[in-house]
Design brief:
There is one protein chain. The N and C termini lie far apart (about 35 Å). The mean pLDDT is about 95. The protein is mainly beta. The radius of gyration is 14 Å and the shape is globular. This is Galectin. Keywords: Lectin. Pfam families: Gal-bind_lectin (PF00337).
Length: about 140
């Protein structure tokens, strides 16, 4: 069972706004997850850095989920996370995608579900949320 971190609802993130998440990666981390979407069943962005999980090593896997239906996995080769380290990640919401800002790197993930607002955010796995802010 994956430990569930805090869950935020009614965020009201719209295009032009951004969500910044700061926290600590567990010393023996295998993977962690951040979900951003309309609610727990409609995830516009499933952000999953994997240190060593599901056959992936030091890879960020992103996806979208519509009820029980997952989309195609998107993999990023850049991996700026360290076990036992701190992490700061910013999700910038745009009209057609979400830009993920990582230390020294950024990439975009399409808004496949055409969500006009992102109300839901959660974290799971080997990550301890320290602060969350949005603007």
């Amino acid at each position: 069972h994956v430990p569930q971190g805090p869950v935020c609802t009614n965020l009201g993130l719209k295009p032009g706004q951004r969500l910044t998440v700061k926290g600590k990666v567990a010393p023996n981390a295998k993977s962690f997850v951040m979900n951003l979407g309309k609610d727990a069943t409609l995830l516009g962005l499933h952000f999953n850095p994997r240190f060593d999980a599901h056959g992936d090593v030091n890879t960020i896997v992103c996806n979208s989920k519509k009820v029980e239906e997952w989309g195609a996995e998107h993999r990023e080769a850049v991996f700026p996370f360290q076990k036992g380290g701190t992490a700061e990640i910013t999700f910038a919401v745009n009209q057609s995608d979400v830009t993920v800002h990582l230390p020294g790197h950024q990439f975009t993930f399409p808004n496949r579900l055409n969500l006009s607002v992102f109300d839901y955010f959660d974290t799971q796995g080997d990550f301890t949320l320290q602060s969350i802010s949005w603007e």
